[in-house]
Amino acid sequence: MAFSSDSASDSAAPALLLDVLAVVRRHRRLISRATVAALLVSALVALRLPNLYPATTTFYASDLQTSDPDQLASGERKVTLTPLPEDLDRAVNIGQSQPVLDYLIDRFHLASHYQYDSSATPEARQEVRLRLLERLDLAVTDRDVVELTVLDTDPVLAARLANALVARIDTVNVALTRPNRQRVVSVFSDKYLALSRSYGLLSDSLLAARRRYGISGLDREGRYLAKLLIEKQAELVAARLRNAPNASSLAAEVQALSQLPAPGAAILTREGWLQGSSLVQRLQVEQQALATELGTARAAVEVAKANLTQRLSTIYVLQPATPGARKVKPIRWLIVAASTLGVFLLTTLAALLLDFFGQPGAVTLSDEAETPARANEPRRQPAAHG
Length: 386
What we know:
Elements: H1 2-26, H2 28-48, E1 53-61, H3 69-74, H4 85-95, H5 98-108, H6 110-113, H7 122-134, E2 136-140, E3 146-152, H8 155-175, H9 178-213, H10 221-242, H11 247-258, H12 270-309, E4 315-319, H13 332-357, H14 365-376
Antiparallel strand pairs: 1-3, 1-4, 2-3
Helix pairs in contact: 1-14, 2-13, 4-8, 5-7, 5-8, 9-12, 10-11
């Protein structure tokens, strides 16, 4: 029946508890000695553990595009404090990267501080990195702020490590875009040099055209030539009408002002003006346009070089790290309590196993639990013989 089985299990539980207490009583010396030994050993170990003091700093990791000098100078971007998830993850990854850890190890001599061999073998170096990572915590809070905590036996050194790590994260973060800015400077410099060569060739062509046709490029130069030629022609006509002796010289002057000048003469004539004015004018327009473009390219090179030397921070520190006044590790009472309780439970379990399975013919707990149930079963009546 169900009622009889439930009552049997209820009566078996106190019996099992009594059996366990009986086993603990029989092995109380072993259990007590082991528990006391665990208490003493754990207390000794806990006392020998060094005190670790925290140093915490919090900072924002801004978007690299909002801190790019080129985009800020051109007005394409403005400084904002709205970091993206990838910006926060990048700051955390940089802080836990091997080059940054090696920088801290070398700067603060952490190998000797952690009592490792200072011979800088690869194995010892890796052990120092692991020790530093154990005492380093970088996490992103729910308010999009990076929280950095460093633990160390020296509270002042912990604060210096935390602040130096934030500064190093900023330096590496800025250096990520430096190769691109160097390539921008190189591209702008190449463009400026190419424009300079083109401007030099165009200037030589313009100078040669002016020398060939005698055009100096002065204002109203053609009008002055036409006026002079008209005046000379009028004097020549008047001299011929008067049979003046200077008529031949005037005729030579008019002819010289009309025909194409000889190469290298650099004399302005009518034919030279007609043939070379359009060419010189076109070359002058091209020179002015190229000079404007050359000035723009030079300004771009200067801005790119200035931005390359400038350093805009990508980290905005909310709270710098300060030396901690109270230790956070180790929690000695918890270590002692957990070790003592664990040894007590393990020793008790070992005593139960030894008592129930180590003796021949021993009755197990399951057998004892089934015994009351069998006792409550109705006994069968022997069959009557006719």
